[in-house]
Design a protein that fits this description.
The chain is mainly alpha-helical. It has helices at about 20-25, 30-45, 50-65, 70-75, 80-95, 115-140, 145-155, 165-195, 205-240, 255-275; strands spanning about 105, 110-115.
């Protein structure tokens, strides 16, 4: 089959590759906190240099994690059409809002300025950085570790009756099922293609036609999602799971000095991206 059906290979979020690297051995709570700091800093940074630094850091984390960068690039591939469409819409319609800087083109309501171009470039790079960081986090942290770390970090909210365990469980189940549904979608696309369906003709610009072609896949995929959800419910009930009940934790994490050092470095890096006055 051609590469357009290899969907599961292009999904990096929710998968885990145990390489035994330094990143893998860090306390998962520290990794999650550092991830939040960096994502917030990247989302709020509007400079070219700041986002270039963030992109370099994201790529460097793959090297430290001993994970091939091709996994990160494969995670970006499914988002390319969305990034391109968003960039075009921003370029055409955001010029009136971000009207500062040099005017390059003006026709009717379309106004392209240096600031609107900055928004387009920065937004595209942001998407890539966040996908890279999310991939590093999930590829170096198992689903169980993510569950325990989210629950541990949110545990102070139990005092106000916040459903900490339920929220952490829902979040990690959602992440875990991303590659599962990608595999199911790939199977259905190959089955439909063997019956004469055409999912790969044309480029990304045929987005409307390709969306129509995906409807025979989307409906049964929802069906499979509901079936798997029901199976998961039955499996949890058979193990006497009761939401809201008091429970102990098998894994108890204890952060070491290196973990706090990495957290401090991540926080300082995030503050640098947020407050340093980059020239461009």
């Amino acid at each position: 089959m051609s590469s357009e059906f290899d969907i599961s290979r292009n999904i990096t979020i929710g998968q885990y590759i145990p390489t035994g690297s330094f990143i893998h051995r860090l306390d998962p709570r520290i990794k999650l906190l550092a991830f939040v700091f960096l994502v917030l800093a990247i989302a709020l940074n509007t400079s070219y240099i700041g986002n270039a630094i963030g992109l370099i850091l994201s790529i460097y984390l793959f090297r430290v994690s001993k994970i091939p960068i091709k996994y990160g690039l494969s995670g970006v591939k499914p988002a390319i059409p969305f990034i391109i469409i968003l960039a075009v819409l921003q370029l055409l319609f955001q010029g009136q809002i971000f009207s500062g800087g040099t005017v390059y083109f003006e026709y009717g309501f379309i106004l392209i300025t240096s600031e609107s171009i900055r928004l387009v470039v920065v937004s595209a790079v942001r998407f890539i950085e966040i996908i890279f960081l999310s991939s590093v986090l999930t590829l170096s942290t198992s689903t169980t570790e993510l569950t325990h770390s989210i629950q541990s970090l949110l545990s102070p909210l139990k005092k106000i009756k916040f459903p900490v365990h339920e929220i952490s469980l829902i979040t990690t189940i959602s992440i875990r099922f991303v590659p599962t549904f990608a595999i199911e979608m790939e199977k259905m696309m190959k089955a439909q293609a063997s019956r004469g369906a055409d999912f790969g003709s044309g480029g990304w610009w045929r987005i409307i036609q390709r969306t129509k072609e995906m409807f025979p896949i989307i409906v049964p995929l929802f069906n499979i999602a509901l079936t798997r959800a029901e199976d998961l419910i039955l499996a949890m009930e058979s193990r006497c799971y009761t939401p809201g009940g008091e429970r102990t934790t098998f894994s108890v994490y204890r952060a070491m000095a290196r973990d706090y050092l990495i957290l401090a470095i991540g926080l300082l890096f995030a503050l640098l991206l947020l407050f340093y006055p980059f020239p461009i």
